[in-house]
Automatic annotation (TrEMBL):
It comes from Bursaphelenchus okinawaensis. InterPro entries: Aminotransferase_I/II_large, Asp_trans, PyrdxlP-dep_Trfase, PyrdxlP-dep_Trfase_major, PyrdxlP-dep_Trfase_small. Homodimer. GO terms for molecular function: identical protein binding; L-aspartate:2-oxoglutarate aminotransferase activity; pyridoxal phosphate binding. Residues 54-382 form the Aminotransferase class I/classII large domain. This is Aspartate aminotransferase, mitochondrial.
Length: 416
């Protein structure tokens, strides 16, 4: 008898590299080229900081506590809420948990929702990062789909998500991205966020904010604005932070969970202790203890004024290069101005299934099934070829439809 023989093949994810060769332009959202032109300054800066730390090692050879480094957690919370935020002064308001990457932060937070809060479902605006759904389902949670944004809404200035949120039952949980939306690159306006947060507050909804790209959208403060705004309302919330992209620490897998409690709760100290115990138990059975070097690097940068300023400048360089890439794409694909409002590293192309397949089979260009791409995969060697291929498949489809009027030709870049 073979135990392993009954193991069936798993469904491949978008990151599986089937069919990729040296001539492939791989733009899938799960693909992240280490030597991306857009991240050059940030990559070089973090490399220099690494070298400094290697030359000055700390004599730390013991396991970190279950919940990780307290110094790192303090720095991570300060980054999320801003160093002057009064919420940081309340010792029983925020509990921080160091995790194995942003993925691990979502795993821990949703495990807590299911097993400690006894909730059975989580509302998720779609499309979203594909791993969100897998994590929720593996934690035994039912996924209730909502709508993130559509192109028609963008043109009409409407937001279906706000209407759908009003229909959520009281005391529900919702998982949504705070900024730099993966995979569309489209965010809600502050006015839309205000309406959405009003609904959460009124219906006592527990939001889990995924903050995976802080600093890569508009700014460090703007990218965390929805979280800071909701915290002002004195309601409970969860945050999952990732330090992979904004610190270029993909090999260190560093993440962080923040559990935000209501202020002036009569049993705040007891509640804080209970949460500490609950998350300690979750981490103990997941990975026991987090790693040290990544959290040391981030802590050094965030707590050293000189290093912090240099890091902020490197992030600004990334944002500027991403905006230039977006502008090139708008020109190269003769697309509309809606694309210029996207933020972060992702954008979604308004291509149908047959066009996406044609790009793969005829031009050896890979993207997500819904047309999402990671802009950092574009460079001086493949950019023109990509533009020409997309324009070729869209022009061909237009001709096949029988001399479609110019005003009716589908726009290239869109929300989904």
């Amino acid at each position: 008898m073979s135990f392993f023989a009954i193991c069936a093949e798993s469904q491949p994810s978008s990151s599986d590299a089937n069919g990729v060769n040296d001539n492939t332009i791989d733009l899938r959202t799960e693909t992240f080229p280490y030597y991306s032109e857009h991240f050059h300054d940030l990559r070089q800066y973090i490399t220099d900081v690494r070298k400094q730390l290697y030359l000055n090692p700390k004599p730390h050879r013991e396991y970190l506590p279950n919940l990780g480094s307290q110094e790192f957690s303090d720095a991570a919370r300060s980054l999320c809420f801003g160093p002057e935020n009064p919420i940081l002064q309340d010792e029983h308001r925020l509990l921080g948990i160091q995790t194995i990457g942003g993925y691990g932060a979502i795993v821990v937070a949703t495990h807590f929702i299911k097993n400690n809060l006894k909730l059975s479902r989580v509302y998720v605006p779609l499309p979203t990062w594909e791993e969100h759904i897998g994590i929720l389902e593996r934690n035994g949670l039912e996924v209730c789909a909502m709508t993130w944004r559509t192109r028609d809404e963008a043109e009409r200035g409407e937001c279906r998500l706000i209407k759908e949120a009003k229909l959520m039952p009281k005391h529900s949980a919702v998982l949504l991205q705070a900024s730099c939306h993966n995979p569309t690159g489209q965010n809600l306006t502050k006015a839309e966020w205000q309406q959405l947060l009003d609904i959460f507050e009124e219906n006592e909804v527990l939001p889990l904010f995924d903050l995976a790209y802080q600093g890569l959208g508009r700014s460090l403060s703007d990218d965390a604005w929805p979280i800071r705004e909701f915290a002002k309302r004195g309601k409970e919330f969860l945050v999952a932070q990732s330090f992979s992209a904004n610190f270029y620490l993909f090999d260190e897998s560093l993440g962080h969970v923040i559990a935000g409690m209501a202020p002036n709760h009569p049993d705040s100290q007891k509640t804080f202790q209970n949460l500490h115990s609950a998350f300690s138990r979750i981490v103990q059975v997941k990975w026991a203890n987090p790693a040290f070097f990544g959290c040391r690097l981030v802590t050094e940068v965030l707590t050293n004024p000189s290093l912090l300023e240099s890091w902020k400048n490197a992030l600004k360089s990334v944002r500027m290069k991403l905006q230039k890439e977006r502008n090139k794409m708008i020109t190269g694909l003769e697309a509309d101005e809606i694309a210029s409002k996207s933020e972060g590293i992702y954008v979604v192309l308004n291509l149908n299934e047959s066009q996406i397949l044609k790009l793969q089979t005829d031009f050896n260009i890979l993207m997500d099934p819904n047309g999402s791409i990671n802009m950092t995969c574009l460079n001086n060697k493949n950019r023109t070829r990509f533009y020409n291929a997309v324009n070729a498949v869209t022009v061909t489809d237009t001709k096949d439809k029988g001399k479609q009027h110019e005003d009716d030709v589908p726009l290239i870049l869109s929300y989904i």
